[in-house]
Design a protein that fits this description.
Blueprint lengths: L5 E5 L2 E8 L4 E5 L10 H7 L4 E5 L16 H14 L6 E6 L2 H11 L4 E7 L13 H17 L2 H14 L7 H8 L2 H12 L1 H11 L8 E6 L5 H14 L2 E5 L6 H4 L1 H9 L4
Parallel strand pairs: 3-4, 3-5, 5-6, 6-7, 7-8
Antiparallel strand pairs: 1-2, 2-4
Helix pairs in contact: 1-11, 2-3, 3-8, 4-7
């Protein structure tokens, strides 16, 4: 299969990305272990009036893996480098889903003037008391678990089903890419390493938050009707950031799959 999009060198590393449409620029930043195809429906709608940039971080989608765990500042710099590589110098609307919201906010805070607006889709919220388990232990255990699951065949059996449970049935065009991605040992290892880095990323984001100010910002909560506490937490985050707030109901965490038209409309409302 010929991959959609293209590969570019960013910081000495090959990254897979797609640029679609024309108009005000929007960059889409996936959450934990997010892939380019997670945004297919939203990107197709946005590309009618916007230039849409989406990319795979190292180890996800079609981008080669890295042995380095992520940092908020490092991923923020990667967003900027991706925009440079594809020739988008103008300020962009940066959209982050879940943990990708930390990277998107980090970009807005550490690259002042490059973010015209910020949209946080059901973004992660740093824990008040991060896990005390040493970082090297968390990363070591994650690497070992990934190797074991791949070696025994568990990943090959369960990977595509996990994606189906979290995102629903994919478009036919994405089925083969999903199967390839979710059965790739590098993908599982990268996902578990990013998850292991989660407490450190939350601490780092809090350290970056005094930087700013943020551009116009919108926090969007997924309201499944089951967790009012989570929606309230998202609203409190919006208040803390001085952001607008919207909730989508019904919607699961991966709202790009549940409510692509609504998500695209909210993002479009923030573009300039």
């Amino acid at each position: 299969m010929k991959p959609p999009g293209t590969f570019v060198e960013v910081g000495g590393r090959s990254l897979h990305m797609l640029v679609e449409g024309s108009g005000p620029p929007v960059v889409l930043v996936g959450g934990l272990a997010g892939n380019w195809f997670d945004w297919d429906a939203v990107a197709a709608l946005l590309a009618r009036a916007c230039t849409v940039v989406r990319f795979d971080r190292p180890g996800f989608g079609l981008s080669p893996a890295s042995d380095e765990p992520p940092t908020v500042r490092g991923e923020a710099d990667r967003i900027g480098a991706v925009l440079d590589a594809v020739g988008v110098p103008a300020p962009v609307t940066v959209v982050g889903h879940s943990m990708g919201g930390w990277y998107a906010e980090g970009f807005a805070r550490t690259h002042p003037g490059r973010a015209a607006a910020l949209v946080l889709l059901d973004t992660s919220i740093p824990a008040r008391h991060p896990v005390a388990l040493p970082r090297r232990w968390r990363l070591g255990v994650s690497t070992g678990l990934a190797r074991g699951a791949s070696a025994c065949g568990l990943q090959r059996l369960a990977g595509p089903w996990v994606r189906l449970a979290t995102h629903g049935a994919p478009d036919e065009a994405a089925v083969d890419w999903i199967r390839q991605t979710f059965t790739d040992p590098d993908y599982l290892r990268s996902a578990l390493i990013e998850n292991a880095a989660y407490p450190d990323l939350g601490v780092e984001l809090e350290q970056l938050r005094p930087l700013g100010p943020l551009p116009p910002t919108l926090v969007v909560a997924a309201d499944s009707g089951r967790s009012r506490r989570w929606v309230r937490a998202q609203r409190r985050l919006a208040d803390r950031l001085g952001a607008g707030f919207e909730s989508l109901r019904p919607a699961r965490h991966n709202m790009m799959a549940d409510r692509p038209a609504s998500v695209a409309a909210l993002i479009a409302s923030m573009t300039v």
